[in-house]
Amino acid sequence: MFRVEHPEYFWLLLLVPIVVGLFFWYWRQRRAALDRFADRELLSYLAPGVNRRMPWTKFGLVALSLPLLVVALANPQWSAQREEIQRRGIDLIVALDISNSMRAEDVQPSRMDRARFFTNTLVDELAGNNIGVELFTCTAVMAAPLTTDYAFVKNVVSTAAPYQISAQGTNLAEAITTAEAAFDAESANHRALIIVSDGEDHSGEAAAAAARANAEGLLVYTVGVGKPGGSLMPVQLNNGRSDYIREAGGGPATTSADFATLETIATSGGGAYFTLSGDAENLAQALRAQVDRIEKQEFETQEFSSYDSYFYWFLAPAVLLLLVELSIGRKDRKMAERYEV
């Protein structure tokens, strides 16, 4: 199969007639100026050895080289062989907690920032699988469907924030149920859910939901972010002032990471629990090792053609023509020497 790698360069061929036209215009202007200076018989004595055909020869060599250089830039290619690549992996959803408790700054710069950075690191580590992103508070939404468009997935993660879901609170059971419904039925036993949260749960049904999902072929992993112990949740008000999330009585509310709940969910879901510390890359690698144990499924087969380039078939003669043009002088040396005094 024949193709041109950079067909846009063919637009440069429009410059060839323009260059030719400019040369004709220049030559006529030059000829007119010389005719005003002296007649042609006298010019042969004033400029001995000048070859009137030589400029045309030199320009012809340049004009011939231009289209060859353009074709070389476009790079004609011919398909050498076709290859089939079978992609294998699993379907994986990352459930990211964006409840108000993730505003806490008990880990720097905040639980939310730490969770976003880790999740993007995890997406890079798990490339090759179908990855989706779920955002949840007391309700859950699939913000990115299962895809291999990792740039889109990372953009969704980078912009995740508590304001995106107005209903607040944390319902881990809802996060598990919503994620389970997003998987294709054919991916049973080839799927995983990774929950990134501080573990606060207002439903108390997450462990049972994880057990049910695991019975349907879903492995549930949890990643805890934050610290146990009360922590305030700063918020930026509309007037630009900073304040804290407050309780119904008006006092500042506090949040405490609940890692025990996350451990129970992971155990019930047949997965494993991890604590998000400072080293996001090592944790992502540890999770990758867990995910790699899951039996892979075959995704779509993709065909690729490898191409050989043949630009040099056009570049070589173009360079040769230009070298010949540079080597040709504008005068007949023997005739010039005859008139030397």
TrEMBL record:
Residue ranges of every copy of the VWFA domain listed in the record: 91-291
Membrane-crossing residue ranges in chain numbering: 6-27, 59-78, 310-328
Keywords: Cell membrane, Membrane, Transmembrane, Transmembrane helix
SUPFAM superfamilies per the UniProt record, alphabetical: vWA-like
Entry annotated with the keyword tRNA-binding: no
Matches recorded under PANTHER family: LEUCINE ZIPPER PROTEIN 4, SPORE GERMINATION PROTEIN
Name used for this protein in its record: Ca-activated chloride channel family protein
Organism: Neolewinella xylanilytica
Higher taxonomy: Bacteria, Pseudomonadati, Bacteroidota, Saprospiria, Saprospirales
